[in-house]
């Protein structure tokens, strides 16, 4: 059961804008452009987030390396609180509701010691029951130690927590220790994903994860081993889970009423067959936008009226991802294909009768594509 909700600060609870801050205080455009990367880069941000040395000492070291920008660096120190601009829209209201529902709320942030000024600035932080700050602990996300410090300080069980962070690598760091996570985009998206996780967590048949470790991580496949305990008391020490990106596909129907299909080779099962246009949803990408992009790249078609049609799991027993299907009515050719080097796709326009015949003959081998086609034909009473 989910009891604790963990939140990153920046881009989750409050927003910040380094570049706007520098433009405001350094009106000379060329000097601003030259100065910005001196402080706004990953190396310096990690130094400040960890704060192995006091903040002011780090600033003096940076001045020593860039003496011509001493005034700008001291300005950064003096007016630091202006970098954080506002609370993330909808989050204070959401946290208020979640707190009333009985959830404990905690913070886990990579931030320098100036964060305490920000905490004083914004009311949203008063809703938290506690927090862990990297500069105080001298460790940063996604290092395992900072999550362990969170669990230890507040006596939290990882499987009872959901962590929200705008960076996927930090979510992965938490997952490796057994904590569920959501890559944060906005309040609405976060709440929708959180409600699904909460609903799943009260399942009386759910398995408890006792141990989890990643075996390997690649761009299109991540595998992990989990030691799980069933409600019956039985344990499985080696249960393997495959993490894929979400898939998207589209039932695209032209203005003439024909189905837009693709013919291509599938190496894993060594066959050439027919499919609806499909692809992967990239990190942070909206599934419908991903489907529109894939349709255009693979076929050159676009336009039409788009609606979400269905979302299913390709293989709920082993895979974590979902397949999102969209319906696009009235598409038309806008361009030529824009294929990747690894793609060899032939475009085929099919009449509804031909699609029905192929479905009945099991000629669509991809289950994630056959399922939405059957649903479309059944809903529209074309069978």
Structure overview:
- By secondary structure, the protein is of the alpha/beta class.
- It folds into three domains: about 1-200, 3-Layer(aba) Sandwich (Rossmann fold), CATH 3.40.50; about 205-245, no CATH class; about 245-380, Alpha-Beta Complex (Nucleoside Triphosphate Pyrophosphohydrolase), CATH 3.90.79.
- The protein has 14 helices and 18 strands.
- The protein has helices at about 20-25, 30-40, 40-50, 55-65, 70-80, 90-100, 115-120, 135, 145-155, 170-175, 185-200, 285-300, 350-360, 365-380; strands at about 5, 15, 85, 105-110, 130-135, 160-165, 180-185, 210-220, 220-230, 235-245, 245-255, 260-265, 270-275, 280, 300, 305-310, 325-335, 345-350.
- A five-stranded parallel beta sheet has the order 5-4-1-6-7, with helices on both faces. Strands 11, 14, 15, 16 and 17 form a five-stranded mixed beta sheet that branches.
- A hairpin with a 2-residue loop joins strand 8 and strand 9 (about 220-230).
- It is globular, with a radius of gyration of 25 Å.
- The two termini are about 45 Å apart.
- About 25% of the residues are buried.
